[in-house]
Amino acid sequence: MRQFVSAASPNSKGLLEITGKDFHYLRKVLRLAAGDMVSLSLPGGFSQDATVCKIDDGAKKMALQVCATPRNDKHSSQAQDSAASRTRLALLQFIPKPQKMELIVRQATECGVSAIVPVIGEYTQAGCEKALQKPDRFEKIIREARQQSGSQVETKIFQPQKLEAALDLIDGIVPDSLKLFLYERTDGTVSFKDALLDQEQNRSQAQDAAVARPCVYAVGSEGGISPGECEMLLSRGFKAVHFNTNILRCETASLYAAAAIQSALDN
């Protein structure tokens, strides 16, 4: 069952009114009719099934009645437990061209990345960060990606930051995280496996090893990451990782890294 990501919560009677573009999505894209069920992703990460109880095509309005008990409680619980047990990912993305940034945000959302911090780097092309001054555009991309993929993770994109400010921000969002950055050169880098093992071994013994540790990974723009930025990342506890693959575009590298990290840590 496809999910609908709602920015609003149902009223005290359990009703949720749908209008505008959301009505078009549910009526024309999902082709919902009266009596059909839809999975709601509500603010706060709560999921609940709902029934389409009324449709007014003339006024382009639809009313959803939230079920007192989920239609498939076991499935809903399993989906939320699965999302909670996965490694929390945060992405520091040095800003590429706008079209590539949109693709990166969409793919990161589908992969379940919880936080995306765009970084204004030395190799960021002039003016590219201006496209990120339209948060509504990226919120729409995130919402559509969650609805398409069924992701239970509430992905959030932050305002563009210079690297030092971005590092301060990410330390507050995901403290005590594994920290990696992708580097196209081989000098001074470690293997992906060694980077994970080294940081896990340095983890405080007082911390609960059963709790999945979050991971922050940084990916450069089209020009990569500058030597000065690499030094700053290293000084803040990041490990430079070189994947022994073909040369990857920045949008491919971001997706590749997310998949590699999830495969290694979640298993």
Task: Describe, in plain words, how this protein is organized in 3D.
The chain is α/β, with parallel strands linked by helices and 267 residues long. The chain is 37% helix and 22% strand. The protein has 8 helices and 12 strands. The protein has helices spanning 20-29, 73-85, 98-111, 135-149, 163-173, 192-201, 227-235, 250-266, and strands at residues 3-5, 15-19, 37-42, 46-56, 61-66, 89-94, 115-120, 156-157, 161-162, 178-182, 215-219, 239-241. A hairpin with a 4-residue loop joins strand 4 and strand 5 (61-66). Helix 3 packs parallel to helix 8 (250-266). It is elongated, with a radius of gyration of 21 Å. It starts with a strand and ends with a helix.
Topology (SSEs and partners):
Elements lengths: L2 E3 L9 E5 H10 L7 E6 L3 E11 L4 E6 L6 H13 L3 E6 L3 H14 L3 E6 L14 H15 L6 E2 L3 E2 H11 L4 E5 L9 H10 L13 E5 L7 H9 L3 E3 L8 H17 L1
Parallel strand pairs: 1-3, 6-7, 6-11, 7-8, 7-9, 10-11, 10-12
Antiparallel strand pairs: 2-5, 3-4, 4-5
Helix pairs in contact: 3-4, 3-8
Q: Which word captures the global form?
A: elongated
How many DSSP E strands? Answer: 12
Strand content: 15-25%
Quaternary status: single chain
Largest β sheet strand count, sense and barrel closure? 7 strands, parallel
Radius of gyration: 21 Å
List keywords for this structure.
single chain, 22% strand, seven-stranded parallel β-sheet, 267 residues, alpha/beta, five-stranded mixed β-sheet
